[in-house]
Amino acid sequence: MPMTPTQAATGTSRPAQTEDAIELLRNDHRAVQKLFSAFEKAKDDDFDAKSTLVRRACEELTVHAMIEEELLYPAAQVALDEDDRPDVEEAYVEHYLVKVLIDKFTTLRAGEPGFDATFKVMSEMVQHHIEEEESDLFPKLRKSGADLNALGKELMQRKEELEAKIPKDAGDNTMRLR
Ligand SMILES: [Fe+2]
To answer: Domain Hemerythrin-like: where (predicted)?
Structure first.
């Protein structure tokens, strides 16, 4: 039986573990963009599909923000010249805002006013994050000579650890993991 768009977007298949740090983070970005576009395509009244997609996006984004804060940004501070270093303060503020929206889904249910709008605003903020990293930080890191294979392994290991701990309900999982 062919997979529905929701099943395809929420699938758990993993790429081979040969990704370096940038490939891993880009794949995270692609995964979350797939969830955003599946949400846009979901029927207005398909609340089950929408809930599933939002829950998966919240999980993905929670883990993604944590591995970036714990591992990527510190590595970038070491590997890049001062002018090229990511503005970590700005990244933290952006991550914080996404977490506030993730937290709204602890109580907000599909079909309730504000559910779709909250997810839309969240997807726009994340899209901005993706564009910034992929056009600026990642190319600079690629050029820096940093050991992206070693960093990729660390990111994958931490990602698996966090995914194993994550509660299987929507909401601000970051707070519960800390
Ligand atoms: Fe990212």
So the answer is: 21-141
Do 126 and 98 meet the contact criterion of CB atoms below 8 Å apart? yes
**pLDDT reported for residue 89:** 81
Q: What is the mean pLDDT of the chain?
A: 88
- Ligand 1 centroid from CA 86, angstroms: 12
Please give the distance, rounded to the nearest whole angstrom, from the Cα atom of residue 2 to the centre of ligand 1. Answer: 31
- Please give the distance, rounded to the nearest whole angstrom, from the Cα atom of residue 65 to the centre of ligand 1: 7
- Under the banding of pLDDT at 50, 70 and 90, the label for residue 2 is low
- Give me the pLDDT at residue 10, please: 63
Does the pLDDT of residue 90 top 50, yes or no?
A: yes
Which helix or strand (DSSP H or E) is residue 45 part of?
none
**Where are the domains positioned within the chain?**
17-177
CA distances from residue 72 to 33, 35, 68, 170 in whole angstroms, order as listed = 20, 23, 5, 25
What spacing in Å lies between the alpha carbon of 142 and ligand 1's midpoint? 15
Retrieve residue 76's tokens: 């970038």
What would you report as the CA-atom Rg of the chain, rounded to the nearest whole angstrom? Answer: 16
The alpha carbon of 105 and the centre of ligand 1 are apart by a number of angstroms equal to: 21
The one-character DSSP state at 37 is: H
Q: Which two tokens stand for residue 97?
A: 């805002």
